[in-house]
Amino acid sequence: MRNMRARRIAKWFGITIAVLTLVVLLAPWKPFAEKKLVAILVAKGFTPAQLSIDHMGLHGLVLKDVALGEPALKLSTLTLAYQPRALLDGRIEDVEITGLSIRAAEGDEGWSVEGVQHLLQQKSGGAPAAIPVTKAALAALPLSSIAVRESHLSVAGKAIQAELPLSILLQQKGAAKLKLESNAPTVQFGENKVAIGRIGMDVLLDDGKPQWNGTWAVEDMVVTSEALAVPPLNASGSATIFADSIELSGTATSKDGSYKADFSLHYSLNKPAESFALLKQLNMPFNGGRLATHNVKFILDGKKRALNFNLALSEIDVNALMQTLTSNRATGTGVVSGNVPVTISAGGKISIGKGVLKAQGPGQIALAPGVIPGDNAQVTVVRDVMKNLQYKVLALEFGMAENNQLSAKLAVEGQNPDVEGGRPIKLTINLSGDLLDLILQNVMLMTDPKSFIEQENHETNH
């Protein structure tokens, strides 16, 4: 009797569950739930808000075609996986987002992010931004993991434009880890473009310290610039994430090792003035030799600042340097080394301070005859001397002329074995603009003192 009664109760319970399930499936609950979710988002500052529910069950929810704000922050799907009991406590197991499109733009009042700018402004007026860097802080998040896939970040700034495909994974299960990846991103600074094969960062939560530790890497970075030819580069290094700052350090090198740069980055979430990038060391080929600089600091507070640094040049080919300075109207042999200070103003204007490059041994200099203007005996001598000047001392002094154009002064000591029996002479030559302006007085003083004195007296009397 009891068994029969139990079977009847079980049958009734089953029929009841089935009927309730049909009611849930057939009732117009989706429009109601969609309106409720939209109202919640609008109350949080995401206005306007649009979405549709693709699936909703005891263990999951799938939203499609989500658009927040105007202009809108968009995503294709948002999947929430949860356990009913945990959901009652406001906790979600897993979140997966696909097709997220983030657009950041820089205007006259600073940076903005489409769709969430109102929310960011609310947060900026409250407590300082903080990254969870302890197990307790992570446990306070209402989810166990979040994955962002097939997504995209567009950056439109006054000095930078970037397109970065995005993949992000944050999970607490087991060892807490954060993984970021971007495949085939592109970045542009003015006329300079950077194409990258892959950017990646993997960090783990430190068990003993309030921070994340890990590594980052940039693969197949190709720089396109009219001012500089650089082979493909790879870069890698260490990453440390604190509650209020991010620190990166690493090295970028070309495949053959001829280009190398060591650098570090410190970015503060709440104190922009303390954010900076430091180029610890740069070493690269230049005109047959090497160019290097050290400890160049870039302040990343968004303000335009002057930049001062020193370029160290070693074993630069005299022939390549002379052709560059004279539009291919002079040749030479030997190598020079030295230092040249450089200043880049806040407005982007480049100026060269007083610097000197000196030859490390003897060599030869030759100027094309047509470079030296004039038609007299003294000019003829100068042309003949400069056809084949065998120098023992050579120095190139750089600076900026009054018209803010780069100028260079060449001082040489030597002789031409085919002129005046190879008598030793000293020459000073100004290299400025598109022409070689030879200081003929200095040349005549060394090659023909009598003519120089007669010319000076003639100019004084008149």
Write the topology of this structure.
Layout: H1 2-26, H2 29-43, E1 49-56, E2 60-68, E3 73-81, H3 84-88, E4 92-98, E5 101-107, E6 110-113, H4 117-124, H5 135-139, E7 143-156, E8 161-171, E9 177-183, E10 186-189, E11 192-205, E12 212-224, E13 233-241, E14 245-254, E15 260-268, E16 276-286, E17 289-299, E18 307-317, H6 318-325, E19 330-332, E20 335-344, E21 350-352, E22 355-359, E23 363-367, H7 377-387, E24 389-400, E25 406-415, E26 425-432, E27 435-438, H8 440-447, H9 449-461
Parallel strand pairs: 4-7, 5-7
Antiparallel strand pairs: 1-2, 2-3, 3-4, 5-6, 7-8, 8-9, 8-10, 9-11, 10-11, 11-12, 12-13, 13-14, 14-15, 15-16, 16-17, 17-18, 18-20, 19-23, 20-21, 20-22, 22-24, 23-24, 24-25, 25-26, 26-27
Helix pairs in contact: 7-8, 8-9
This entry's quaternary arrangement is: single chain
Helix content: 10-25%
Strand content: over 45%
What characterizes the major β-sheet? 27 strands, mixed
Describe this protein with a few key phrases.
single chain, 462 residues, alpha+beta, 27-stranded mixed β-sheet, 9 helices, 21% helix, 49% strand, disordered N terminus, disordered C terminus
Structural summary, described in words:
This protein has 462 residues and is an alpha+beta fold. 21% of the residues lie in helices and 49% in strands. It contains nine helices and 27 strands. The protein has helices at 2-26, 29-43, 84-88, 117-124, 135-139, 318-325, 377-387, 440-447, 449-461, and strands spanning 49-56, 60-68, 73-81, 92-98, 101-107, 110-113, 143-156, 161-171, 177-183, 186-189, 192-205, 212-224, 233-241, 245-254, 260-268, 276-286, 289-299, 307-317, 330-332, 335-344, 350-352, 355-359, 363-367, 389-400, 406-415, 425-432, 435-438. It has a 27-stranded mixed β-sheet that branches. A hairpin with a 6-residue loop joins strand 11 (192-205) and strand 12 (212-224). Helix 7 (377-387) packs across helix 8 (440-447). The longest helix has 25 residues, at 2-26. It is elongated. It starts with a helix and ends with a helix.
